[in-house]
Structures are given as C-alpha cells and as structure tokens.
Amino acid sequence: MIDVKNLRKSYQTQDKTVEILKGINIHVNPGDFMIIMGESGSGKTTFLNCVSGFDTIDEGSIEIGGTKLNEIKGKALEQLRLHQFGFIFQDNYLIDNLTILENVAITRLQYDAKAYDKAMELLKKVHIDHLKDNYPSQVSGGEKQRCAIARALVNEPKILFADEPTAALDRQTADEIMNILSELNKQGQTILMVTHSPRIAAYGTRMVFVESGVFECDEAFTGDDLEANYQRVMEITER
Ligand SMILES: Nc1ncnc2c1ncn2[C@@H]1O[C@H](COP(=O)(O)OP(=O)(O)OP(=O)(O)O)[C@@H](O)[C@H]1O
C-alpha cells in the first residue's frame, strides 16, 4: 500500500543543512494501524508530511498504491491527497463559521450532490449527529475532534494520517477518540499515527520508533490487549 525506500529529508536553516530523515525504509500494509514514536524533534511529523505529499523529499521514493509521490505534482497531487488521504491533527482546524455538518461535508461538495448524506452517516458513526447544526464554538473539545475524524473520512480515504490527535484532550476523551480510531481500523481503515504517549500507542497494531533519522524498530503487536501492548511500548521506548 505504501512503500517507502531510502527516504532522506533535510531542512535548510540560515547557515546549515540539518538532515532529519537519513534513509527510512518501510512497507505499510492495508489495515495497519501504525504508530510512529520517537523523541521530540526526531522527525515524526516530517515523516508524516513527506509520506502524505505535504512536503518534498530530497532522496528516495514513496509509492502509494502504485503511484510514485515524487513523480506527481500540482493538480494530480492535490487530487490524490483529496481522495486517498485523510488528516487529523492535534488542533482540529474546524472552520468557525460553518456548522459541524458543513465542516464535514465541505470537501465532498465539489464532486458529490449527496455530500451531506455522507457527512451525516459519518457524524452518526462518531456519535455527534445530534450536534450537526451547532457551530464549533458550541461543542466540546472531544466533540470537535470527533468532527475532525468525520471530516477526515468524508472522501473515503485509503489512508488516515493522524498527528497527535489526542494531545489536547483529557484522558477519558482521548480514550474515546482512540476507541473510534481502533474501531475504524478493525473495519479495515489504514492509519498512520504519531504520538508521544505509550498509553495511546497501545491502541495501534504496529509501531516504529524514529531514532537518529531512521526507524530503529518495527514491531507488530500481537493483539488488541491494551495492557500487553502498553508494556511492549514501554520496553521499546525505555531501552
Ligand atoms: N520547515 C522546517 N524548516 C527547518 N527545520 C524544520 C522544519 N520543520 C521541522 N524542522 C526541524 O526538523 C526536526 C524534526 O521536526 P519534526 O516536527 O518532524 O519532529 P517531531 O519528531 O515530530 O517532533 P515533536 O515530537 O516535538 O513534534 C526539528 O528539529 C525541527 O525543528
């Protein structure tokens, strides 16, 4: 599904070039719920941005369903991102003057006359359909994040990218959001998620750890026992 070969990425600052990713190789399978961990500044978001076509790469290749990301640009890249990728961030980036329903439907309206039906179906899935006519300022942080998940799913993406989606939420709300993502994954949704939290990482099915610009480990969890996964994540992150 996603094939990353020898991905290298550096950033230019005033006086020097800083290499962040130094040769990442990874194959993401359909149905993976891949957790990306690593120290602050290690390059987790940079990896997500490169794989989702948001940022360019210096060397290597990223192939998504047979398309090489570095060989397409402009409109073609925009269309691929719209139809194949969904995004959830720590900040929900909802549009304040659109209702919850409109926030979810907006990117689908340009090509589907039934976009609102699809948006309603997703609001039901994340259990906030009763809030469809509210504006973002009239719902809680957790409800906003549910809305952001529905919005990310509205174009039926093959891959859902999530960058610290629960970092701004309290523990119980974070668990509710993770249960939704876990359920989506069980229904077949491929997810790539960055988190700092071993507790949150335990909801995944597989984990990589970024260190010194490469993936130091690539570990499949054995099941969906949260406690067992948590223990495994702790072993990996503490060694
Ligand atoms: N556009 C940019 N220009 C220059 N440096 C950048 C840019 N984006 C990121 N960096 C640097 O690249 C490094 C990796 O950043 P990145 O955001 O990928 O780390 P991270 O592992 O996601 O960190 P955190 O866990 O703190 O969010 C950091 O040192 C950051 O300062």
From TrEMBL:
Keywords: ATP-binding, Nucleotide-binding, Transport. SUPFAM superfamilies: P-loop containing nucleoside triphosphate hydrolases. GO terms for cellular component: membrane protein complex. PROSITE patterns: ABC_TRANSPORTER_2. The keyword Nucleotide-binding applies. One of its GO terms (molecular function) is ATP binding. It comes from the Bacteria. Residues 2-237 form the ABC transporter domain. Belongs to the ABC transporter superfamily. PANTHER family: ALPHA-D-RIBOSE 1-METHYLPHOSPHONATE 5-TRIPHOSPHATE SYNTHASE SUBUNIT PHNL, LIPOPROTEIN-RELEASING SYSTEM ATP-BINDING PROTEIN LOLD. This is Putative ABC transport system ATP-binding protein. It comes from Longicatena caecimuris.
